[in-house]
Amino acid sequence: MSNKVKTALARLMSILPLKERQENCGKEIKALHQMMLRSFVDKGCILTRDEMAQHVGNIDHAIKVLVDNDMVVFSKNGDPVGAYPFTMEVREHKIRVNGQEIHAMCALDSLAVSPMFGMKTRISSVCRVSGEPVFINQSGKIIENETGAADVCFGIAWGAASSCTCCAKSLCMEMMFLKDSDTATCWLEQNPDDREIFTLQEAVDFSALFFLPLMS
């Protein structure tokens, strides 16, 4: 792990300490959280509230813990709609995995799916600046289509993090793919104090280090 990735990982964990929260919520809710994550790759969607209730003694308490810890996102109607790195919302980062087509909360999240579940993925996204398509074929931490994706970069605007709303609606919205290093550099130079860019391999390492522990 490079010092750059190590520093970024610590910074993200200070904003959203998912693994720490998962461990602190108790074995029952931790297991439920892991089932909700696996549901996306197994059947292409999150567990419903009724399905969640089959695995815990008190569903209302479980939901409160998951919401209070920003581990699962719920709609205004009380239905589960996302669990980092996944979302039922249509976002710009689409993943093909295990015969399912699902969406990730952000660019970093999309890169975590293959290492988390040991499955090959096909990520379809866009460059946030140019709107040009970005395609990434991934197997664990390995980018398989290096010719087409080698110059893709990952960008994050750290200042988007907010204590007033969940990460899914704040920081995740400013974690993106950039089509190449020139585009990434120009984007960075617009606000260098707030923004940071990574190579695609650095972003893969970053995402795996953050998300892979959630499944253990």
Q: Which architecture would the CATH scheme give at its second level? A: 2-Layer Sandwich
Rounded mean pLDDT score: 96
Widest sheet: strand ordering: 1-2-3-5-4-6-7-8
Beta content comes to 15-25%
CA-CA gap between termini: 20 Å
Main sheet, how many strands, which sense, barrel?
Answer: 8 strands, antiparallel
Instruction: Choose one word for the global shape.
Output: globular
What is the strand and helix layout of this fold?
Blueprint: H1 3-15, H2 18-24, H3 27-43, H4 49-53, H5 59-68, E1 73-74, E2 80-83, E3 86-87, E4 94-97, E5 100-104, H6 107-117, E6 120-126, E7 133-139, E8 142-143, H7 146-149, E9 153-157, E10 175-178, H8 181-189, E11 195-199, H9 200-211
Can you characterise this structure?
The protein is an alpha+beta fold. The chain has one domain: Beta-Lactamase, CATH 3.30.450. Helix content is 41%, strand content 22%. The chain has helices at 3-15, 18-24, 27-43, 49-53, 59-68, 107-117, 146-149, 181-189, 200-211, and strands spanning 73-74, 80-83, 86-87, 94-97, 100-104, 120-126, 133-139, 142-143, 153-157, 175-178, 195-199. The strands form 2 sheets. It has an 8-stranded antiparallel beta sheet with strand order 1-2-3-5-4-6-7-8. A 3-stranded antiparallel beta sheet has the order 10-9-11. Strand 7 (133-139) and strand 8 form a beta hairpin. The longest helix is centred in the N-terminal third of the chain and has 17 residues, at 27-43. The radius of gyration is 17 Å and the shape is globular. The model has no long low-confidence stretch (mean pLDDT 96).
